[in-house]
What we know:
Elements: H1 5-14, H2 22-35, H3 37-53, E1 55-56, E2 63-64, H4 70-73, E3 78-85, H5 88-97, E4 102-106, H6 124-131, E5 138-141, H7 147-161, E6 166-169, H8 185-193
Parallel strand pairs: 3-4, 3-5, 5-6
Antiparallel strand pairs: 1-2
Bound molecules: zinc ion.
Amino acid sequence: MSDTHSLDTLVQALRRLPGVGVRSAQRMAFHLLQHDRAGALQLARALEGAVQQVRHCTLCHTFTEGEICSICADPRRDASKLCVVETPADQAALERTAAFNGRYFVLMGRLSPLDGIGPGDIGIDELLARAGDGVVREVILATNFTAEGEATAHVLAQALKSRGLAVTRLARGVPAGSELEYVDLGTIAHALVDRH
Ligand code: ZN
């Protein structure tokens, strides 16, 4: 066994993060061990706590520590409007505009056949069940304006419409190829108001 076995294990673990290759992983590991051991322990505890505590809302699939998230549990939200987004970050972007008072369904991803992500992986059956609960009157597709986000919106629209549900899409104005998370609030709010 090498005398840096634990360090090697740490580097391998850091490489699990998206976009982190072996060199960045080594830099992070060296930094933590050399300059911030207290921070490293804090990181380890935060990771463990989050993995143990955070789960998915049974209604909208976003991250929550309870059975149901605070938005789904809020009686002041309009249950007749269901906004479909790709990620909790996109949901947060819409929430920051304060232009939407309905509820959400968070896909926790997008269709991506090349990566083997199909309809089952983004909870399409759960979405159809939720949208067909008799309370939802309009489903607003707010997937990103990327190729995969548009393809996802197309597939979801077909499935929802075939069940007689009213479907709208965020209006253009959000630049093509962009992710909601990075779009300014005014643009998102307009896209929401002008949905069609
Ligand atoms: Zn929820």
